[in-house]
Structures are given as structure tokens and as C-alpha cells.
Amino acid sequence: MTPAGREWQMVEPDLFTCGAIGEPGHRVFYFQAADGNTRVEVKCEKQQAVALAEHLVRLLGDLPEPPGGDITTEPTEALDPSDMAFVVGSISIGVDRARERIVAMLEELIVDPDDPGVVEPEPSKLVVHLTRAQVLGFAGQARRLAAASRPRCRLCELPMDPAGHVCPRLN
User: Fold this and answer.
1) For position 118, what pLDDT does the model report?
2) Which range of residues forms the domain containing residue 63?
3) Gap between the Cα atoms of 30 and 25, Å rounded
4) Measured over all CA atoms, what is the biggest interatomic distance in the chain, rounded to whole angstroms?
5) E strands within the chain?
6) Which of 9, 87, 112, 124 is the most buried (most CB within 10 A)?
7) Which residue has the higher pLDDT, 165 or 89?
8) pLDDT in tens, 38-70
9) Which pairing describes strands 125-130 and 7-10: parallel, antiparallel, or unpaired?
10) How many domains in the chain?
11) Taking the alpha carbons of 135, 144, 26, 81 in that order, is the dihedral positive or negative?
12) CATH code of the domain in which 58 resides
């Protein structure tokens, strides 16, 4: 947690995607953005990545249609993360109609201290302005990561670990 709270503004990012490291069931998910020589990774939950992808794609309807119809984009692969800047708490999204961009703000999770005399720091923020192609590439990558999760038990629908699964429906 950064006491002063850093802010990264990426108005014309070269990259925005999500990735995961580790084995299914024990993976660490992250958002990754790059702009020139600046690259930022922030830790997130799988559900945050999937939900953000769904909402961003829905917001594309608020932007003008591209000339020649919709574009197709391959999933945007993530690079190996170097250092997680913070853990994502809240995510805000909006539309910049003038620039035809979707804006996502990822804000650091700040845990309330138990001591009421402690002043909470300002949360760090990562703000990215995304093109239609970047949104579609991000969404494709988020879907790909979600599909690579642990298989589900056919009886209870809970994820099964490679080491085994104790199904509550068999008790």
C-alpha cells in the first residue's frame, strides 16, 4: 500500500489486458497496462476481470459504430508481470464520447485500520482510456483466462482441484 497514493493516467495506452500466473485454483490474476516506457500491473480477482470485460463490451454500444462494421480482434496476451503496484478494490468505468474511448479507473483496495487514530492513505489509481479494439482484445483475454479454470463437479458444480474433490452432494 502506498501512503501517498500514486496515480497512473494512460490516455493513449499501448496495452491493456489481464493475465494470470500459477496453476488453476491457485492463480493470481492481474490487470496490465503499458504506455511508452511505463508498465503497471495491479492484482485483481478473476471475477473482477470477467465482470470488467462484460461491462466494457456493453459500453461499446455507447460509442459510434466503426466504419465498415464491427472489428475483430484477437485476445491481447499479457506479458509476465514484474511487480504488482497494488490490489484492486473498486473499478469505475465511463465513456469519453468526444474521444470515442471507454475509460476504466482501477482503484487500490484500502483496508480500514483497526486504530481510529490512523489516517487512511489516499488510494492509488490506474486510469486507462481504451479504444474499441483494446476493449475487444481485453475481453477476449478475460474470457480465455476464465475458460482455463478448474473443471466443475457434475454433481455440485463446485470447482475440482487436481488433487481431488470432496463433493458435498455425496455426503
Assistant:
1) 64
2) 7-109+117-170
3) 15
4) 59
5) 7-10, 15-21, 28-35, 38-44, 84-96, 101-108, 125-130
6) 124
7) 89
8) 999 999 999 999 999 999 999 998 888 877 766
9) parallel
10) 1
11) negative
12) 3.30.2450
Please report whether residue 70 resides in a domain: yes
47: exposed, middle or buried (C-beta count within 10 Å: 0-12, 13-18, 19+)?
exposed
- Stated as kind and residue range, the H or E segment containing 155 is none
CA 120 and chain centroid, separation = 24
Residue 138 burial by CB count (10 A; 0-12/13-18/19+): exposed, middle or buried? Answer: buried
Please report whether residue 87 resides in a domain: yes
- Give me 155's grid cell: 454433481
Would 2 be classed as within a structural domain? Answer: no
Q: Answer whether residue 165 is part of any domain.
A: yes
